[in-house]
Amino acid sequence: MKPRQSGLPERSASWRAASGWRLRRTWPLHLMIWPGLVLIGLFSYLPLGGIVMAFQDYKPWLGFAGSDWVGLEHFRFMFEREDSLKVIRNTFVISALKMIFGLLAAVAFALLLNEVRSTPWKRTIQTLVYMPHFLSWVILGGALTDILSQKSLLNRLLASMFGSPIFFLGENGWFMFTVVVSDIWKEFGFGAIVFLAAISGIHPSLYEAAIIDGANRWKQTLHITLPSMAPIIVVVGTLSLGNILNAGFDQIFNLYNPLVYERGDIIDTFVYRLAMLSGDLSFATAVGLFKSVVGFSLIVIAYRVAYKYAHYRIF
Amino acid sequence: MGKELRRSSLFVFAVVTALAVLLSACAGSGEPGGTPSKEASSEPSPSLAVSAEPEGPITITTVEEIVASMVFKNGETAENNWHTRWAREKHGIDFKYLWTASSQNNAYNTKLRLSLTANEPLPDTFFVYDRVLASELIDAGKLLDITEAFEKYASPRIKELYAEYPQVWYPVTKEGKRYGLPVLSAGDVQDTVMFIRQDWLEKLGLQPPKTIEQFETVMEAFVHRDPDGNGKKDTIGMSAGLKDNVFSVIGDASWLFGSYGNAIPGQWNKTDGGTLQYGSIQPNAKQALVKYSEWMKKGYLDKEAALMDGGKAAEAFNAGKSGIYFGAFWNVGWPLGDVKKNVPGAVVKAFPLPAGPNGQIARKATQLFDGILLFRKDFKHMDAIMKYYDALYGFGFSEETDELRFGFAEGYDYAMENGEPVYDESKIPGGKIEAKKVILSNDEPSIPFKQSKVYYDLHNGKAPETAFEKYLYGLGGEVHQAGAVNYEMLPYSQPEQFIGAPTKTMKNRDEFLRKLENETFTKIIYGDASPDSFDEFVRKWKSSGGDEITKEVNDWYQSVNGNR
Amino acid sequence: MPHVSRAYGWFTFANYTGLLAVSVLCVLPLVHVLAVSFSGAAAASANLVGFWPIEFTWDAYEKTVGNRNFVRSLGVSVIRTSAGTVLGMLTVLLVAYPLSKENAAFKGRSLYVWLFLFTMLFQAGMVPHYILIQRLGLLNSIWALILPSLVNVYNAILLLNFFRQVPKELEEAAWIDGAGHFRTLVSVYLPVSMPAIATLGLFTMVGHWNAWFDGLLYMTRVENYPLATFLQTVIVQQDFSKLAARPEDLENIAQRTIKSAQIFIGALPILVVYPFLQRYFVKGIVLGAVKE
To answer: Distances from the Cα of C61 to the Cαs of B45, B165, C228, C249, C266, in angstroms?
Structure first.
């Protein structure tokens, strides 16, 4: 079921041409957009000129005009490192896993919560599950180290079942698992809010009609709830593609250690270590540019694919 | 109906809030909040400098790095406190703060870089901890050459003191000229000593270990003989934090490397041949790593050590589950001070480091300088600053004529009782605060190693005479004991020899090499990699830029040594 | 109310149990943090605290709230958050509405959308932003914390999607009544989209309340730090590398209890405001009468 896009009421083409109401109709729209445009023009596009830093050996006292031009040097440095491909791969993998499963978890939770009839319970559960969002990884890092330690309750349980404890944060594969799962746990509650909002906008008459047709709850979910949520799910998923190379610095920084550099070192932790030594501002800009280009390209691709094959504009 | 009312009232509320905020903000920005007025106020310096009036106070602009231990009382602020008053009254200096920033998250350093970038004028003088930042500023040509001024205006005792440690000038020396004033540190406050649960030793009938073998025996006992007496085998021998580095001021693990050779890991050491070599690729590193891997297998170390920093590693010790911990002498107060509260009867004592097979001991030495005081290129009042600096040293030198010999501010970090200074918290009206945090160098300039000697003397029974000694006396017997051990271990401290700005190849490769090092070390300790992978690591290190860096470091060393 | 099948009955039971279990799992860490914040420093530093305080004390809160700058920073944050949220939502509303129209109906729409989206992904970094704020004379002003983030493109795109789901009939009815775009926005779209607006308002509010980096950069006086910056940087010394190691420094270092108190204080206002917004997206309001 394609979502409806609101536009203009049906009118004949001649009526439209004759009355010139298009311009009359649209000038308020342009007016509404312009404050936003001015703001982004000033606060986003103007500073973007500074992106030249990514191509310079930027020195604060020389400024943009005076610093040496080094072209693609920073990018070359980024890719020439022996482990740069590994680091980029780690970033991609961790990010993709978080995105996919995080989205699934948030949507699933919204659907399940929707089945809770009692409003007080609904609100209580919903309030509780979004709380981890407010904990910082500094605290959670320490907590996870304890909960997942090889001597912990959890591991003793696992050891009795499977023979040996799992070194969650010290083995590469398990580290990735822990990172993804803990991040989902932290964010699914907060992430589900927007889906709950989407669900609450569904008109009850749709459900009433379905019930008359004999559809059970599962069918209703499949044919009414999910399709109504589809636009929001799609747009949230698409926009998160823009973040594909941001695998979550705070979390990784607080959880990683030399034993898991192989799979756990991401672009941002690498840039952080470098910045600690050199205070190099332009390298960080170059990396940021790289991340932006990749993220933006993915969004463009997703948008085009959706338009070409489903004739649907994601935004 | 009710919904509409709520909706429209919400809307009205929103509009009103927005308007209120707009109005208040407009009114608020009438304050000297914007930059233009700041630039105006920093103008006076150059013009005053030209006229150089001897009477009225001279304005010196600076910036302040706010640290958490900077506490104020009596309604004072970072910009207006005992220090600003004292400087004005006693030295004719009016300190004006252009901005303040926290020391956390590198905020202060970032702010400095940003203000450079935005072409804001540098403050007349400012203090930095970061050597790299200082060297950037030197390269930028924005700093004052103080070589002459130091010769001319520094007091004799300061000149004498600095002459003892000529290497502190290296970080600020460029082409023979000195572009900043390093502030001397206490000299050994980060060097490692060993802490053991004395009560555990006594309970199990053990002697404090003097060699590695004895050390292993002690750890074996701590793990298997139930020292905490709860019937469970839940104790470990030694706690250390391996997350970032083998060296740390808390939860140190680098001490073991020193038991097999003088090459300290993670730093550049002088060899017998007179060159500088990187410590982590030397043979003694391999021996230490092998030892650690044995200990890890035997359960002497915490299985999660690689995940921990020194603070987390201290938890086990504080909970009474670990018997040995390594760190600077002051660790006895923190982080190890809490064990006494959690475990009744716990006694923590400091000990010298265990010696290796050849009686070998070595440990990493503290930097001789805490940070550097920098001056803007056209700053004209070096004479006033040097006089002020000498006065700040009053606490360290403690001579009769020094105003600050008792402390920095009466009623803040000390009080007078019957003509004698007292440092007891309860005797100072309004509570004791560390007054020295607000001075220009953020902490008192020290006389290296003096503090250590005092601890040693106090521990051995000397009665405190000078105000400095009285002050240290007040810190308690445990600190004296640890400080005394630290003092005895001084001959074993090996300093970092490379204190110049990062070299060209270092900037490119150092991060990668360190990552490789940490990975290799940790994996060997955990048994995830064989000890022979160390040799592979050394090969890789050398060929991935290590050899170039070694050459560059030695070139630098030649260049600064040649000037002596 | 249709009869509930047995299978659905089982499902409901499992659902409730599962959701409750997950809720408990989510709230436990906060309980732990709360417990640590009320515990004595010694027990906290040895990690002995579970879900109940050991040696109950108000110490951590006293040190945090009692710090002179706390109230001031709180004020800065309150102003910044309320102004930022209100103005931000207004901006987002004004941007999302036109963008929600079809391309045919609004020429240039596509261009606009990409212009906005581009800024969401491409940022120039700290240095150019700092220079801009400085040149605008906004350093140390609260507007430096509010203005740059007014146009939240993510929110705008979300909102435009919600707007697209508004039934056409409502809009047509308004037009027939002679309403122009502004009136339509306020009288039709706004009420129907309350769940979305509440959601985005919450996101904006949380974002402002927790933002600490811009405060760090743009405020030239530590006293003007918003609360998040203040909690992040001033209260607790976490950086051991600079430890000049005077024994007297050590009291203030990294006290677990203070860090925990900070987290709780940081989260508290949102937790308080949240229930008022919650009803918009949990139960769901479908306003207005849509004539079938």
So the answer is: 43, 45, 15, 20, 12
Residue B237 makes CB contacts below 8 A (sequence gap 6+) with B218, B219, B220, B222, B223, B295, B300, B301, B322, B323, B324
CA–CA dist C186, B471 (Å, integer)? 70
pLDDT exceeds cutoff 50 at C237:
no
Domain ranges, residue B275: 192-364+495-561
Assigned token pair, A279:
């205070």
Residue B307 at interface with chain C, using a CB cutoff of 8 Å: no
Q: Does B438 fall in a domain?
A: no
Four-way CATH pick for C61-284: 1.10.3720.10, 3.30.70.860, 3.40.50.300, 1.10.10.10:
1.10.3720.10
C-beta atoms surrounding B555 within 10 Å: 11
Shared domain check, B147 and B218: no
Q: Do residues A289 and A261 share a domain? A: yes
The CATH number of the domain where B541 resides is what? 3.40.190.10
Rounded to whole angstroms, how far apart are CA atoms B169 and A117? Answer: 74
Q: Check whether residue B100 and residue B241 sit in a common domain.
A: no
The 10s digit of each residue's pLDDT in B382-438 is 999 999 999 988 888 888 888 888 888 888 888 888 878 887 777 787 777 778 888
Chain A, nearest residue to C180 by Cα: A25
Q: Report the distance separating Cα A123 and Cα C280, nearest Å.
A: 11
Is B435:B442 a contact under the CB 8 Å cutoff? no
Predicted confidence at residue A140, as pLDDT, reads 87
- CB distance B210 to B354 below 8 Å: yes
The ipTM of this complex is: 0.86
pLDDT (tens digit, 9 = 90+) per residue, B222-270?
999 999 888 888 899 999 999 888 988 889 999 999 999 999 999 999 9
Domain extent, residue A279, equals: 75-310
Q: Measured on CA atoms in the order C184, C189, C194, C197, is the torsion positive or negative?
A: negative
pTM, to two decimals:
0.86
Chain B nearest C-alpha distance from C18 (Å): 32
In a domain, B407, yes or no: no
What does the pLDDT look like over A286-298, one tens digit per residue? 999 999 999 999 9
Peptide bond into B354 cis (omega under 30): no
Task: Spell out which residues of chain B touch residue A149, defining contact as CB-CB under 8 Å.
Answer: 303-304
Residue A209 has pLDDT above 50, yes or no: yes
The least confident of B62-76, B494-508, C63-77, C205-219 is B62-76
Q: Which amino acid is at A43?
A: F
Looking at residue C250, its pLDDT comes to: 55
Query: Chain B closest CA to A278's CA: distance in Å?
Result: 6
Higher pLDDT, A293 or C192: A293
Assess whether pLDDT exceeds 60 at residue B10. no
Q: Quick one: B374 and B502 in the same domain?
A: no
Whether residue C164 contacts residue A198, with contact meaning beta carbons closer than 8 Å, is answered with: no
Counting one residue from chain B and one from chain C, the pairs whose CB atoms sit within 8 A come to 169
Work out how many domains chain B is built from and give that number: 2
